[in-house]
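Example record for the data management plan.
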Amino acid sequence: MSGYPGLSGRTIVVTGAARGQGAAAALMLAGAGARVVATDVAAEPAADFSDTSVEYRRLDVANEGGWGDLAAFLRATLGGVPLKGLLNNAGITHRSRLGRIERSDWDRVLAVNVTGAMLGIQALAPLMGDGSSIVNVGSSAGLTGHYPAAYTTSKWALRGLTHVAATEYGPRGIRANIIHPGFIETEMTAGAPAAMRRSQLELTPLERLGQADEVAAVAAFLLSDAASYMSGAEIPVDGAFTSSAGAKYMADRIASEGAAAGS
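Corresponding structural encoding:
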């Protein structure tokens, strides 16, 4: 894929890659010629990685020891070549409001969504060099006051971690950016209430939900040399949902009521 220069033959780690966005990214990166180490807490991936350059390894991102094991594996197999990239895609949600969320659920979401990314950066940045890239997967919830308290908080925190990484590792030539997907059709969003899906469509100017490959394409771009001077950037992939900030819904209601009044 000429659109993703600098990936062929290089190694990239993708977390949360057993299915959904992570699997889509792993397959897209492999298609661009990268060696992809796909990780997830699941024992086996739901995605089919056969006949690709994707290697699957089990990893609980909230487990510091697991990251140490992965770093040791990469150190032994990289042959002195720097690790090209880390895509921190692993994430979980918990749809509970602030007044109702249990401490254990709060801790679990932040452990995976924020601490997991931090541990990954700590463990793998020493294997990176000039031209390497860290990409964190945030959410439109990290740009708004979305109601799931723990999930929203975790994605806002991930924004801060991204900017810290961009600042700290920039002198080594390592870039760090964050993507903010909107409502993407994956297994995680499949259980969303019907009212949430309807509302999302009403609030999204492109008037459709997103696909995992659309997020994967932006991740691949940021991991590639095509984005060689991009660091500290936050990129929504949400059909203008956060850009519109509800204005679409308001405009549609005004137009609808105006048409009704004139009929």
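Summary line stored alongside the record: The domain at 11-193+208-242 is CATH 3.40.50.720 (Rossmann fold).
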